Amino acid sequence: MNKKTLTLRLLAYLLSATAAGSALADSASINYRHQFLEDDSMHADRVKLSYRMDNGWGFEGELKYRTAGDRKDVAFDNTVSSGHELTTSYQYKYSAVSTWQPAIQLDSNENGTTYKFGLKYTRKLNDQFYVAARYRFDALKLNRDRIDEEVPDRGSDNRNTQRYEGWLGYTPAGKLSYEYQYIYFDTDYIRYDNKKSDYEQNLIVKYKWDKSWAPFFEIGDIKVSATDDDRQLRWRIGVQYNFM
């Protein structure tokens, strides 16, 4: 089965699962996002389908694409698959203002598969502010053909990452809402500035057009490479459509 056939079957399955579960689902949505990395001059796209049932179980599927070759800096040109990700999570409402959410994710592309195990806690401070924190362990298992143990510092081998995240959200009365995210990475390989650690920051602005449509904009601060301390901006723009 080639990649295009697998992608189409996955998309069809996710759409049918969303439709079938909509009678029981508390929420269901489709999310499209376009991304551009400033220094790398690379465009990428993502489509995510998700639904969460009344009993707390939630399921998500992502299809990822990017532009490639000498046309990687041109949006929607020479587009190739960049893998897919499947997520299963459970949302446990501990109280009226706090929620726990364990999750398991499977992120695959031509280089290998990353197994992600995480636990997120969200707490509503008042009608306008909320905070959240998550710990996630990511285990990358490379395609055996791509493993090269002679590359130093596990640069071309299986890798493990401990990921610590925090969010601060502001949802004032009106259509706009804001969210700041900080991520710290603790790794067993050289990831940034010749060190086995890294960080990212992200600011998200959402606009609630109506009960169904919600466009959003993101700006992120991320690394450029593993061997120097250069940083770059990551621009994202997208829209989410909520079925329920």
From TrEMBL:
Keywords from the UniProt entry: Signal
UniProt organism field: Phytopseudomonas punonensis
Lineage: superkingdom: Bacteria
Protein known as: Oligogalacturonate-specific porin
Gene Ontology terms for molecular function: porin activity
Transmembrane segments: none
CC terms in the record's Gene Ontology section: cell outer membrane
Gene3D superfamilies (UniProt xref): monomeric porin ompg (2.40.160.40)
GO biological-process terms attached to the record: oligosaccharide transport
Signal peptide positions on this chain: 1-25
